[in-house]
Amino acid sequence: MGTEERRRGILHTARRDGSVEVNALAALFRVAKETIRRDLHVLEEHGLVRRTHGGAYPVESAGFETTLAVRTTRNVPQKSRIAAAAADLLGDAETVFVDEGFTPQLVAEALPKDRELTVVTASLAVATALAGAEKTAVLLLGGRVRGATLATVGHWAGRMLGDFVVDLAFIGANGISRSYGLTTPDPTVAEVKAQAVRCSRRRVFLGLHTKFGAVSFCRFAEVADFEAIVTDTGLTSAEAQRYSLLGPQVIRV
């Protein structure tokens, strides 16, 4: 197997499994660990993966995006802590936008059930999670349903969302960067997220530390648009301080 073929195989494995480890790849492709490390370095330079201690995970792009099913199995403890901390920022908000994705879904499940609340979402998973809450009114945006994320997109969703003024929006992204802001691979998803930013009085970003420094295809917001960023302690305090200088409070849990 040639070098390029092996690197394509590594990328395919990373995208299929959600992450890869150097030891396992070395055994799979029957090459030295140092060869795999060089391969991962090259793939990272091309913006296809991001390296971790002992491995790497794929970077989402216009041509590749992990499914909701995959997201529900990865880093669940960290995502649960992030969601709980984000839900604590609700304050006196009566109307809330909850974005698509597994971590926002966990936020929805963490919202108080003992008070009147209206939740607007494009996510079928979020709507389903809240459907049985007696004091929660759920408004599901119309549009085309994306199979990968079970969320609606398109001009119907954007037009409906544009008619609202929402107190607080919980928003996720595929990448957040001090230079490029918040990004996501799909233009139709970016359109809904951008509309959520425009129609909300307050905005909170939530996401794992692995999202920081990652840049995807479509920019939909700036870091300064958010009052708070909630992430895990994998984001260093120094990097958190750099983001806080742009405006938002950075909460690491």
Strands of the widest sheet, in order across it, are 6-5-4-9-12-14-15
Beta-sheet strand percentage?
A: 15-25%
Tell me the Rg in angstroms. Answer: 19 Å
Q: Given the structure, what is the number of helices?
A: 10
Provide the low-confidence segments as ranges: none
What pattern of helices and strands is seen along the backbone?
HEHHEEHHEHEHEEEHEEEHEEEHE
Q: Could you say which overall geometry the principal axes of the C-alpha atoms support?
A: globular
Helix-and-strand structural type? alpha/beta
Protein name: DeoR/GlpR transcriptional regulator
3D structure, described in words:
This is DeoR/GlpR transcriptional regulator. This protein has 253 residues and is α/β, with parallel strands linked by helices. Helix content is 38%, strand content 25%. The protein has helices at residues 3-17, 22-29, 33-45, 68-71, 76-87, 102-110, 124-130, 155-162, 187-199, 237-244, and strands at residues 20-21, 49-52, 55-58, 95-98, 117-121, 136-140, 144-146, 151-153, 166-171, 175-177, 181-184, 200-206, 218-221, 228-231, 249-252.
